[in-house]
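User: Please predict the structure of the protein below. I'd like the answer in C-alpha cell form so I can feed it into my own downstream comparison script.

Assistant: Understood. Taking the following sequence of 293 residues as input:
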Amino acid sequence: MQREKEIRNILLTVLFLNCLVASAKLICGYFIKSMSMIADGFHSFSDGVSNIIGLVGIRVASKPADKEHLYGHKKYESFYALVIGGLLLLVSFNLLKESLQRFYKISFSPLRSPVSFIIMLITMGINLFVGNYEFKKGKEMNSDILISDSLHTRSDFLVSSAVIVALISTQLGYPHVDPLVSIIISLFIAFSAFKIIRSSSQVLCDTAVIDAKEIEELVKSIDKVIDCHKIRTRGRKDDIHIDLHVLVRADMHMEEAHQISYKIEEEIKKFFPQVSDIVVHMESVDKKSSKRR
C-alpha cells in the first residue's frame, strides 16, 4: 500500500503542474494566435488527463486478490497505461487533422509578444524536471503508469522547443512554420503513444519477462536437480509469475522432492526479488535410462 500511496502523491503533484503549464500555454497561444503554442497547450492538458487516468488505474491495481481475481489486480495498472496510450493517439489524430487544415489556410499573423517566449521557457523547465523525476520514480517502483505518464510529460520539453522555433520563424515572416511544427508535434505524440501501447500490451499479452536460460542455470545448480524445462514467465516487472518443470530421481521420496521444490522457489526469489508466484512441476526420471516417468 505504501507504493500505491507514493504513486498517487506523485501523480497528484504532476497533475497540478500539468494543469498550470497547459493553462499558461493555451491563454498565451490564443492571445497571440499561435497554432503550435495552442497545440502544445492541448498536449499538456492531455498530460493532465493521463494523470487522472493513472490515479484511477493505481487505485484499482492496488486492490488485493479476491475470489474473482485470484492473481490480484496489478495488471490493471498496465491496462490503464494502455488507455493513456489510446488517448494520446486520439489527441495526435485530431491535432494532425487541424494542423493540415490550417497549413493551407494561413490568414493570420501572430502578435509579437516576448511574454510567449518567457512562458515557453518556464514551462519547459517545469516539464523537464517533472518528466525526469516521474520517470526515475517509475523505474524505481516498476510502475507502468508512472513510466508511461513520464514519457508523455517529458515529450512536452521537446514539443515546447519546437514551438519556440515556430514562434521565432513566424516573427521572421514564415507563418507556415507554425502549423508545420504543430504537425511535427502530432507525430511526436503518436510516437509516444506507440511506445506506451507496446510496453503495456507486452504485459497484458504475457510476454516473457525473464530469460529462461538464466532460470534454467540457477535451478540446475541446486543439489539433486537433474534438469529443468518448460520454463515460462509472465506478468509485470514488479509482479512476475513463473512456472517450470523439474526433473529428479524416480526413487526420490515425495517429501524430499517437496523440499527441493521449496529450495527452488527460495533461490529464484532470492535472485529475482520481483517474482511473486512460482509453480514447480516435479517430474521423476530414471537417471540410468534418462527416461521420464
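That's the full C-alpha cell string. The chain is about 65% helix and 10% strand.
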